[in-house]
Write a structure and sequence with these properties.
This protein is an alpha/beta fold. Helix 9 crosses helix 12. Helix content is 35%, strand content 19%.
């Protein structure tokens, strides 16, 4: 198939484009949010074609995957086709709802012309989807390999914009975790985080690495910490598990489903989590054993083959339904 989708979520798209299709990604002169084109920090195959918006219609996409409400109007403008009527359409929801949870209506609620896909069961449960046909296709991760060494007795955290996002991403909890281990925080716009939290720079170190470098750096840290209060299931958590890292995570959103017993410590008590970080720092053998179980769990539930198979099935179903 020729699938039209926007470059919105780099990590998710990296998994999605490993399938057998041609992926058409809009590109604009400014490479703005509606036209980022191909990724520059992720490894995408040649089957991903970036196209200027005036050439998309001639490319004749077979199906469109929307990820933001306004993309529906872009399809009308750029293709001259009505999503769900003239072209098979899937709306992919990456995020947990905000606002009046759990009464938040999804933008695609009560539609009979689109299929709404959630990336986690938690997301589907907490969005008000109305009568729209919904499915859950859980994440799939291209396996980075079992790289864990844990040679540095530090705790790794991956979060984008931790200062702006604050309590949502558990930024306020980082000083507590820094009492148990040096924090190495990776992600976009992390500069100035230590000063923002009033921490010495040697207790809270930040950097922004491309995915390939990030995986190597994560695997050297003793434990992965996921302090997020409210978001969809973080792909960085699943990547850490694939690497063979033990995880310490807040028991919120989909985490309780993703991290089984023996793969780390999951709790709503921050002090219990801090104790777990301290224990892993002191006992590298226990960290290695739990990380091995974390990797096995991640491979079983979030493997790339299952993910692509689920998507191929849905793409075929949606295309067939629209044709009929």
């Amino acid at each position: 198939m020729r699938i039209l989708l926007w470059h919105v979520h780099g990590s998710w798209t990296t998994a999605f484009v490993q399938g057998p299709h041609t992926y058409l990604v809009p590109v604009t002169p400014d490479r703005g949010p509606d036209g980022l084109g191909r990724a520059r920090t992720f490894a995408w195959p040649d089957s991903v074609r970036e196209l200027p918006t005036d050439l998309l219609a001639n490319a004749e996409p077979d199906v469109v995957v929307l990820q933001r409400p306004h993309e529906e109007e872009l399809v009308r403008q750029w293709l001259g086709r009505r999503p769900g009527r003239d072209i098979p359409t899937i709306y992919l929801e990456h995020n947990a709802p905000h606002g009046q949870v759990p009464d938040t209506r999804h933008p695609m609620a009560d539609r009979d012309d689109v299929t709404l896909v959630h990336v986690s069961h938690f997301n589907r449960l907490f969005w008000d989807n109305g009568g729209t046909r919904t499915e859950v296709i859980e994440h799939g991760i291209p396996d980075p390999g079992h790289r864990y060494t844990g040679r540095l007795p530090h705790a790794a955290v991956v979060v984008n914009e931790p200062i702006r996002r604050g309590r949502t991403t558990g930024t306020d909890l980082l000083p507590l975790f820094s009492e148990a281990a040096v924090l190495d925080v990776f992600g976009m716009r992390t500069k100035g985080l230590a000063a923002h939290l009033g921490l010495p720079r040697d207790r809270c170190r930040t950097s922004d690495l491309p995915q390939s470098g990030l995986h190597t750096a994560l695997a050297e840290r003793r434990v992965y910490v996921h302090p997020v209060r409210w978001t969809s299931l973080g792909l960085s958590l699943l990547e850490a598990m694939h690497l063979g890292m033990p995880v310490v995570a807040l028991a919120t959103t989909e985490v309780v489903r993703a991290v089984p017993p023996g793969a780390g410590v999951v709790s709503t008590d921050p002090e219990e989590l801090v104790d777990a970080v301290r224990a892993y720092v002191r006992d590298p053998d226990a960290a290695t054993a739990d990380g091995t179980r974390a990797r096995q769990a991640a491979l079983e539930r979030y493997g790339l083959k299952r993910f692509l198979t689920d998507w191929d099935r849905l793409l075929e179903e949606v295309s067939r339904r629209c044709r009929s």
